[in-house]
Design goal:
heterotrimer; A alpha/beta (175); B mainly alpha (313); C mainly alpha (675); A: 175 residues; alpha/beta; 6-stranded mixed β-sheet; C: 675 residues; mainly alpha; 3-stranded antiparallel β-sheet; two-stranded antiparallel sheet; 27 helices
Chain lengths: 175, 313, 675
Amino acid sequence: MKSLFGKILSTPIVTEPVSRAAEDQQIELITREIDARVRKLLGRSLHIREVDAGSCNGCEIEITALTNPYYDLERFGLHFVASPRHADCLLVTGPVTRNMAEPLRLTYEATPDPKIVVAVGDCARDCGVFKGSYAVVGSVDKVIPVDVMVPGCPPEPIDILRGILAAIDRLPNKR
Amino acid sequence: MTPYLLEIGQALLALLLAPGLVGFIRWFKARLQGRRGAIPWQPYYDLRKLFGKEVVMSKNASWLFRFAPYVIFATAVAVTLLVPLVAAPLPFDAVGDLLAVVYLLLLGTFFLALAGLDPGTSFGGMGASREMTVAAIAEPTIALAIFGLAVGAGSTNLGRIVAQTLNHPGAVINPGHLLGFTALFIVMIAETGRLPVDNPSTHLELTMIHEAMILEYSGRYLALIEWAAALKLLIFFSLLSNLFLPWGVATALTPGALGVAAVALMAKLVALAAVVAVMETRIAKLRLFRVPELLGVSFVLALLSVTSSFLLR
Amino acid sequence: MIQKTLFLVMITAWIAGAAASLVTGRGAIARVVAALGAGAGSAACLLLGVTALITGQTLSLSLAQMPPVGGLMLRLDGLGALFLVIIGLIGLAVAIYGFGYSANYAGRYSLRTAGAMLNLLMLALGLQVMADNALTFLIAWEAMSLSAYLLVLTEHDKAETVRAAVWYIAMTHAGFAALMAMFLLMSGSDLTTSFAAMRANAAALSPAARNLVFLLALFGFGTKAGVVPLHVWLPMAHPVAPSHVSALMSGVVIKMGIYGLVRVALDLLGGGPVWWGGVVLGIGAISALLGVLYALMEHDLKRLLAYHSVENIGIILIGVGAGLIFHSYGLMPLAALGFIGGLYHTLNHATFKGLLFLCAGSVSHATHTRNMEEMGGLIKRMPVTALCFLIGAAAISALPPLNGFASEWIVFQSLLEGVKIPKPEVAMIMPIAVGMLALTGGLAVACFVKAFGITFLAIPRTQEAEHAEEAPLSMRAGMALLALACVALGLAPFAVVPMMSRMLAGLGGLPDTRAEFARNLSLAAPNGSSLMSPTLVAAGLLIILCLAPLVMLLLRVNRKLRVSESWGCGRIGQTPRMEYTATAFAEPLRRVFAELYRPTKELTIDFHPESKYFVQSIEYRSEITPWFEKYLYDPCLWFVRLIAAVVRRLQSGSLSAYLVYVAIALLILLLTARM
């Protein structure tokens, strides 16, 4: 017990600040303009439900990193939830495989409005390396409407975070 | 007229403080984990957002699903009118005593469990089953803790219990008192779904108790249920602090005394919240079938507390 | 005067109902006359009881000295009036309900007997509580047992029913024998001695005789009430009887055990040593806990309710036991509180248990099964039944603001007063009883979440449940009557408790506590130490329930609602097999209390003949150990059979042997008579 609390007291807050990406790094593609009303409603409290539509789990590992003390997405009011009924944002990874197309659609339908969808990774954007495979239905926006795409294979956690924050217009202004 | 306004004011104060209490525990835990964490008043934003979302309901659910959040919320608010948060005795002190408080909370749990069963999902049923098991086994401890307090004060009315402790400050270090506090603390953890009984922020359905029942809820219904859960946490904290350590509670209805009482309440809530946060950081969740053992320990403590108050009269 | 009229109406209605039912025999007419007779008699009974409670007047009747009915004495006092209210209220609901329910039986079983026996049962019950001497009491008791037996046997083609009825009649007669012995002891071998004379003589009995009387009363009345370990007939007989009969039996007939115990222990004997109350309290606490523990494991809806009756009888006996303990220490107001708690719970239990059985009857009528695991989703197909069952379930779980909470509050308060008992070792039983009572209450809530949730909520599990129809009007009316009574009794305990106080005043030396336990709209503990008002709590809840949506409307909260599939983690489609089952719901508690249940497990797996990797069928069987049947009753029955085998040798069939027996018996008789 002493060692745990000793460690807690001796370790500082390690959260790193988030800034905008450099101009030439156009890392988030906003595919649909999200309604200002929705951005205002979800701006301070966004509950995210992660959906793995057949990915290799590379993006998942990066997304998991978002909850560690360095990236700490909770400080922006973002929070991962277990049930899509509690969610405002679907974070979708993976080229949508044939078996996951219907579950993805069901998840989208189970989420209450207003909601946004963020597609993470090259696979979610255009099937990535799995393009043309017999097991794949298409990119995420062929199954459900997508609001933001974050390219990368896998994208870094900071870029995923920037993508989500850009969707709700909470990205800090400084570089 | 003023005492009744005070009652309404107290309920509003509880409604206002409850989400902040939950937010504070989360913030403190985050800081212990070395990260910045969400701001302590994040739950207020969460509630505001939930009230702006639509409700998606299962087609297998019935009117009970829509009715239950209101009952759960109403019972929690009704209890805030009966518990001595800032003043004792309250005008509604004669309306509900400690037994009424416990059974009103049980009424809320009853409807929550039914609402978990209504959509016909496995996780909802599992949550309902586990919640009722924990609630049933926690009941004897609560009853004995009430018995212990009532024996000391000669009444089960909360105002009188508080007055008794205020008039006999030495009773605080009675073994009966201390054992009763410990027993009730363990029960508080079980009833409000904190670690080590239930993890409030888990995503693994098989580890959920309270969360599993509300997996199907969304929008304004979810907001009401989350608010009621926060109120329940506030109520338990207030009962623990004001029944066992009532200093600060106003006995006269002057603005000065009430102001001091409000500050004292917040201080006690923050202190208990900090203790709970530290405990949640240190202790891992218990396996479900170890929880009855924990509650059994609390029962024995409560029984010892009652026995000692009987024998040391 | 009005009381006498009501009494005559009551008796005539029931006798007429029975006679007319026997005469008309078939079809709708039989059902109508039976229901009319039972209903009119019950209404009169209810009014008689209520007027007697309000006015506090007693009524005495002594029938003429004719041989068959000679020696019958009837007297209505406060205690009897309370039980008349119970009989009348439940009887009325049962009569109305039974009219619709017995339509099932037309053509298959005898409506003649069913209707006649129902009226006779109610007549016996009515006369029972007005009995003023041992003869009347015993005749009414036996009539009640026999008519109930015949009613249990309504569906006599099923083996389960016949077995249950045999157990019932055997146990009730064992109790009857004890009662007969008890009355003989108390009245000095003259069964026509009035209760008043017995009361006077009781002081003259030796302490050993008084203790024996008490124990015989406990055994005899305990058999009828269904206390542990004499409860085994209850979960057998109540499920197999027609539902309105189950309601009457569970609601009223077992309460006659409580009536008898209070009448004998408190009124006739005038209270006794501390251990009397202690034994009653102990048996009550154990019955309560065991009743609810066994109820939790049941999936037959009516057996579950039957075990809950055992539990609630336990709670009633906790109140009565506490009352007796205080009485023996001379703490009279506290004793009154204990008895009021117990008797108020009697009234409340009759109401909500009757309601629950009637609802269970509607459900089994619609789905043709009693097994909860084959129901589901009935709340949409049978909304009235579901609402009534919900009210009954909330009431039996002692949730405010319904009636179960009010009476349990009083029982709790009387146990809390235990601190005033002079001896600490006796006073310590009270907190233990409080703990057991609280555990019982918690488990009861869990059990009823299971019962209501699995039966009515989610998706129908079978075809029958999918096509279930709501109950006919008369059945709905019967259920609604009792549901309203539950709500009314819960909202107005401040009116009921003074009536109970007045009823108990004078009984066994209890004082008149009318002004003590109910003040304004609140219930109060002695000296106003604790106050609680279920009425105001209900009002508060209602106000908040109305304000919350109003405020949300004013603040323009999002009001949209979309109906969609259940969230099944992306699973496509949902079948009833994915729902939670009753067995699964109770499983955590089964594991927690595994020491008591000792569940046995049998697993048989049939593999495919060609390969062990493929399974053809799996059979899983799990049962809990029936402690009392296995370790108490089976040995007793074995012993009885042993003796019977020995005695059978006397029945040799030879006439000369029988003549020798007669001669020997005559010789012995003459010799002893001479001495």
